[in-house]
Amino acid sequence: MSWSAKQYVAFEDERTRPARDLLAAIPTADVRSAIDIGCGPGNSTGLLVERFAGAKVRGLDSSADMIEAARKRLPQLQFDIADIDTWNDSGPFDVIFANAVLQWVPDHPTLLPSLVSRLSPGGSLAIQMPDNLNQPAHRLMREVAASGPWADKLARAAGQRTEMADAGAYYSMLKPHCARVDVWRTTYHHPLADGAAGVVEWFKGSGLRPFLEPLDDAERAEYLKRYRTAIEQAYPALADGSVLLPFPRMFLVATR
Hints:
Rossmann fold, EC 2.1.1.144, single chain, methyltransferase, 7 strands, about 260 residues, SAM-dependent_MTases_sf, alpha/beta, Trans-aconitate 2-methyltransferase, seven-stranded mixed sheet
């Protein structure tokens, strides 16, 4: 799947807020080395630089477009193109930061302990993942995909996201390898000024990508038309024309 940095940062303030909340929960104080895995356009990497002054901060992402944007934003840092599930840098790192990325990476029971093993003693793995596959916006993506003439093309689109475990399962994955594991879930309510169109634009930068990429231009336009009509019913506009988009997210901070 390809990523568009321009589309993603259209809602940069809203997308960065969970990263700030995640960063604030990291207990590790003496940080000399930090890495932002799945750094996107560098918005979350910049937060690491601000929080851990003097630390060596790096970023990596599988998208060349995202890495190009990150390098322009923070030219003094090292950014690499890499897939997280095959990334083999042993570190050690005092902080591994993974904001809104591991929902795209499979096999969490293997991946998360592997990431912890790359931490220095007292280091922290900080993870935030959208936990919204059962929200109307995602359910409607699947329904529109299954009910249109593109059903065969999109049969595998929903499987691009990794199925989320519950809080207890993530705690159990991490606790045998960590001194402390903190798990919580927060639902943000984002006001989108453009109503249903704003909801569609939001997800064009993330969850809709696997559904749109296999389609040709005409199919993509028709898919988005049907999806927007469904979104209008699921997320009624408020009196001022805006929509309040509920967005649940899972947070994990595991300290070695």
